[in-house]
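Sequence in, structure out. Go.
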Amino acid sequence: MSPLLQWLIVAPLVLGAGLFAGWRLLTVRLRLRLMSALLQVLPDASAGPLARWRAAVARRIAADTAGSGGCATCSRH
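Output:
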């Protein structure tokens, strides 16, 4: 296999794995802020999967903080 072809195959895989790991390490609130920023930059995506995904994350935050006065850890104890 040529080095160029190998690089073209491996580079996207490593980049994707790094982005996925970084995304998973973010807090839920930071993910929500990032998705909101992306929706402002990409207004055409406001009706697509990114907007639905952002709404699901917002519902998750609301469910985690419901009845606890905003302290998500208090509702779990």
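Check: The chain has a mean pLDDT of 82. Residues 3-76 form one domain.
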